[in-house]
Predict the 3D structure of the following.
Amino acid sequence: MTVTYSYEALPVAEWFRRNREIAGFQNPARAMYQTVRELVENSLDATEPYGILPNIIVRISAVDETRGWFSIYVEDNGVGIPGNEIPNVFGRVFYSSKYKIKQHRGVFGLGLKMVVLYAQSTTNRPIAVRSASVRSDKIYEYKLMIDTTKNEPIIVDVREFENKYKWHGTAVKVTIEGNWLNSKKRIEEYLKRTAIISPYSEIYFSGPDMELALKRRTTKMPPPPKEGLPHPKSVDVDTVKQMIADNRGATLIELLMNNFDRVGEGLAKAFLEWAGLSPTRKAGGLTQEEIVHLVEKMKTYDGWLRPRADWLSPAGPELLEVGAKSILGAEAVFAVTRKPSSYSGHPFIVEAAIAWGGQIPLVDKPILLRYAN
């Protein structure tokens, strides 16, 4: 018996469409929750790092109850998206403006593209986007889908309007197959937990049978995270190969000084001597084995300075206390933010708060809310 095999290259957008459960879109209830979460967190990323107090509107409406189709609308007052970039931001997988190291909720906006892919695979309706950048004279509106074979945006419709009132932000509307009854509680809890950690946000939600208004409790915001270069201990071989490809004419000492966090001339020279590499050697002349050797030495060298902590944006004790008291109705809250630390070149900060009394229900075991970014 002869067995034949057929192979084909699978475009990245098509791969994610076929494996949507990896991103949390495995069933209608989970997909509805995940859609709200992805859009809200994109809204927070468009406001918080830029010092804008978030105003976020979320609406879920039934479109066709017999089919289980719902529209989800999320609007924010963030920095907006330049009109010419909107198709790529929403219609191209692995397209992102996030290049350097900085705290944010996503890396390539992948969850946003999964929303588009899930919508077109269940209802075959395009995503509608309206956006205007800060001080933009125009508002741009697009209806978009993704060509999964080419990983390119399909522009169904595009319009532009005069921005008379200087509005800025982004509004997104998507129609998906969902399950409101089974996702209702989870969506409500997610929005409340978001308000706990960001009490400077104003979030208004309306669903088929409920409304939720989470008022802003403070105008104080955490310091925005700064962009930085990667720490020498945090990179892999592929990353260093890309750096070398972008800096082929640079010497090894120049490569280290210009592409890594907190690496000055003296430190770079000391490391290279320890690693048995010439500081004046051209990075582009390294063999594959030498690149692997370089990365291995970078990961084991103990002389590097600790990574900067200003890549991160901790909430701080005051905001944690305000959020817990306002949303949980606690009688007392105590919060702490620990000093920055690092693991394998990645900085992190641990924050914790304990709340009790007031409107918190009596339970046998503590209610634990965990956040990670």
The radius of gyration is 24 Å.
